[in-house]
Predict the structure.
Amino acid sequence: MLRKDIFSCITIKKGDITTETSDAIVNAANTSLLGGGGVDGAIHKAAGPGLLEECRKFNGCRPGEARITAGYNLKAKFVIHTPGPIYKDGKSSEPEILRSSYWNSLMLVKENNLKSVSFPAISTGVYRYPKDAAAEIAIETAVSFIEKEEYPVDISFILFDNDNYEIYIKTLEDKKNELH
Ligand code: ADP
C-alpha cells in the first residue's frame, strides 16, 4: 500500500471513546479484566453488566496481550481489552509491552474481519506512561501494522485530554514528514 494511503486510514479525534461507532473500541484494561477506573470504568458503565460477565471467562490477561468481547449496550459491536504496561523507569520492557498492546489488538481486528477500530491513549493515565513516548508507539505501531499486514482498517485515536490530543496531532504530522 502507498504511504499516503496508510495515513488516510488514521484519524485523530478528541472525545469520549464510549460513544464511538467503530466496529470495535479498545479498552485500556487492567490484568484482572474485571473493570477499574478511567476509560475502563467508563466502558464498563456504558456497556452494562453483560460485559463484566463475559470478561470473567478469561481469568485475566497479561500486559501486552488482548482479548475480544461483544459490545453489549455500546454502539461498537466489539470491545478489545488490553492491559498496557505500568510505567516504572522505561527500562522494564514498557515500550515493548505497549507496542504489543496495540499490535495484538490490531491482530484481533484482522482475525475478526473488522473494518474500523478506536483506541484510547493506553497506559497514559493511572499507569503514567509519558504521553509523547506513548503517542509515538501508538502511531508507529498503527502504521507498521497497516503496512506489514496489508489490512486496510480505519484506525481512530480518541483522546480524552487536550494534552494527548495535541501530542497525537503533532506526532502524526512528524511521522508523515519522516516517511515522505
Ligand atoms: P491506564 O491505566 O492504561 O493508564 P487510564 O484509563 O487511567 O488507563 O487512562 C488512559 C487514557 O484514557 C488517559 O489518557 C485518559 O485521559 C483516557 N480516558 C479516560 N476516560 C476516557 C474516555 N471515556 N474516552 C477516551 N479516553 C479516556
About this structure: The mean pLDDT is 96.
